[in-house]
Write a structure and sequence with these properties.
The complex is a heterodimer of chains A (268) and B (273). Chain A has two domains: 5-200, no CATH class; 202-268, no CATH class. The N and C termini of chain A lie far apart (93 Å). Chain A is 81% helix and 0% strand. Chain A is built from twelve helices and no strands. In chain A, helix 1 packs antiparallel against helix 2 and helix 2 packs parallel to helix 4 (74-88). With 268 residues, chain A is mainly alpha-helical. Chain B has two domains: 8-203, no CATH class; 208-269, no CATH class. Chain B is mostly helical and 273 residues long. The longest helix of chain B is centred in the middle third of the chain and has 39 residues, at 100-138. Helices cover 73% and strands 3% of the residues of chain B. The N and C termini of chain B lie far apart (68 Å). The chains are: A mainly alpha (268), B mainly alpha (273). Chain A: One of its GO terms (biological process) is phosphoenolpyruvate-dependent sugar phosphotransferase system.
């Protein structure tokens, strides 16, 4: 199938809404699972959107903007995964790999904004010093507009304008290459998990990582809820244990202070 | 109704803000990233979100308004979902006309630790759990997956309202609550988060060899007859730790994605996977 002009415009509109949300992080509709589903709906294949959403969400689990690195953009990745899968009849897992260049391009645009929006700061400072609240509010809409529009333009160009060359590229890809992209889509979550581990993993927590890994390997179950619940059990035990410990530490300190204070009083 | 009236009376005495206005502070806290830049991070959005409240406090004091706006244009970077607490807390102090340097000092002392707690809870615990579960439902084409994800995050969006009230009502008492519990909360969140990540590695990183190695007359399937006999999912686990090691060596995450793609394409080309 082809993306029609109406669909292209609708996709651009959706990219503007979810892109704005991606910038503000309010409703989290910028995550692939939502982006893909809505894009599927626009293209008239909800089922494909939902499946692609699940796969892309997993690939991006852990690829978070926390910890100082801006990951490939989830909005463009979600949209292009569904568009490529729908227009080329490729498997969604392969489409994730092919959509990644678009996601990285958007990532670099956002990084550019993060640096260049410093240019607005002198103006903000000026309005603050003047106590000019109206101008201050208005100025905030400029970066918001720039971000929203660039999401719309990027999505329209990628989904609508670039579909013919994309089709040619996909059709000319040999089987081993498409298979390679499919494999990469399955391995990609490892990158996110490694990034999470870099931030979270300390020696004392390795035991819990191992516990979760062994449990999920041994219990064939369709999701990680049982693992999460066992994790919650340990979290609860530790919560009460450390609370008691802190209480105890406080009491010991108080007793120490009292005996010291007492000694001083006696001296006086 | 009686208790409602009482609450209202109580709030009325100490506050120039209505309940609704404090709720709106929670909603407005979503604006903090509006003019994000590396130089001062959330500062302009943070100031914008709270402007109407300062305008009310400093209605007849233009210099006070200028001072509060200028002060808040300083660097601030914390966890967005926890901003309502910080805003509520600082608003009580602003309303009580606490000394400017005290407010500024407190703001600077709190946003760092709150960023740590917030990231541990929202990005590293809730995101992998909710994302993992709803994705595993969606993967099979079940539309309940995205719906579940949306509802959970809608709830988290809504939770900014009670958090704003919490910060505002606790006032300076919130400082003790935050400082006392921040260590425990991030400790507990790390335990839960890492257990889940361990599970996610086993469930969602898909790597298995398809190559068969001939040794004399017998043909051995490397994955089924060797690796799976040692431990299932040993390959994904090892690969995650290879990437982890690269990250510890300060390799840019973009390179990890490149490494992943090159590995996958090479494996596909030589027919090992």
């Amino acid at each position: 199938m082809d993306v029609t002009l109406t669909q292209g415009v609708l996709i651009a509109l959706w990219a503007m809404i979810s892109g704005l949300d991606c910038w503000l992080q309010a409703f989290f509709i910028f995550r692939p699972i939502i982006v893909c589903t809505v894009t599927g709906l626009i293209l008239g294949d909800l089922q494909l959107g939902v499946i692609a959403g699940g796969l892309t969400e997993l690939a991006f689990a852990g690829l978070t903007p926390a910890g100082g690195t801006q990951p490939p953009n989830t909005v463009l990745c979600g949209i292009m995964t569904v568009v490529i899968a729908a227009t080329n009849k490729t498997a969604p897992a392969t489409a994730i790999g092919l959509s990644l260049p678009f996601a990285m391009l958007m990532q670099y645009i956002l990084l550019f904004f993060y640096s260049s929006f410093s240019l607005f700061l002198p103006k903000f400072d000026e309005y603050a010093a003047e106590g000019n609240t109206r101008a201050f509010k208005r100025l905030n809409f400029v970066p918001l507009t720039i971000v929203t529009l660039s999401f719309g333009i990027m999505a329209f160009l990628s989904a609508y304008a670039a579909q013919a060359p994309m089709k040619m590229l996909v059709n000319s890809m040999p089987h081993w290459l498409t298979h390679g992209f499919e494999l990469a889509g399955g391995i990609l979550p490892a990158v996110g998990f490694a990034m999470l581990l870099k931030v979270m993993l300390k020696g004392q927590y390795f035991a819990y990582l191992l516990l979760g890994f062994v449990m999920a390997s041994m219990i064939p179950f369709s999701n990680v809820l049982p693992v999460a619940l066992v994790g919650a059990v340990f979290a609860m035990i530790e919560f009460y244990r450390s609370r008691d410990q802190i209480k105890l530490e406080k009491q010991v300190k108080e007793v120490e202070n009292q005996s010291q204070g007492g000694g001083m009083n006696d001296g006086i | 109704m009686a208790s409602d009236d009482k609450d209202h009376e109580k709030n009325h005495k100490k506050s120039i803000f209505t309940n609704h206005e404090i709720s709106m502070l929670g909603i407005r806290s979503n604006l903090v990233q509006a003019s994000f830049s590396y130089e001062r991070m959330h500062a302009p959005g943070w100031t914008w979100a709270q402007l109407p409240y300062w305008q009310k406090i400093y209605k007849d004091d233009p210099d006070g308004l200028k001072a509060v706006m200028t002060d808040n244009m300083e660097f601030i970077n914390s966890s967005p979902p926890l901003y309502p607490i910080l805003m509520g807390l600082l608003l009580t102090m602003e309303e009580g006309h606490v000394d400017r340097t005290t407010i500024k000092g407190l703001k600077n002392a709190l946003f760092g630790p709150m960023a740590g707690i917030g990231d541990a809870i929202f990005w590293f615990t809730i995101m992998p759990i909710v994302g993992g579960i709803s994705a595993s439902i969606a993967k099979n084409g079940n539309v309940f997956g995205p719906i579940l994800f949306f509802l959970v995050y809608l709830f988290l969006f809504w939770s900014r309202i009670p958090l704003a009230h919490l910060g505002y009502n606790l006032g300076t008492r919130a400082i003790d609550v935050i400082q006392e519990n921040s260590r425990i909360i991030s400790h507990v969140a790390s335990i839960l988060g890492l257990t889940v990540i361990g599970g996610l590695i086993a469930s969602y990183v898909k790597m298995s060899l398809t190559i068969k190695v001939g040794a004399g007359n017998t043909v051995i399937n490397l994955q089924k007859q060797l690796l799976d006999k040692i431990f299932p999912n040993i390959l994904p686990f090892a690969f995650v730790f290879l990437l982890y090691w690269l990250l510890k060596k300060n390799v840019n995450p973009i390179w990890l994605i490149v490494v992943t793609f090159v590995l996958a394409i090479v494996m596909a080309a030589i027919g090992w996977m």
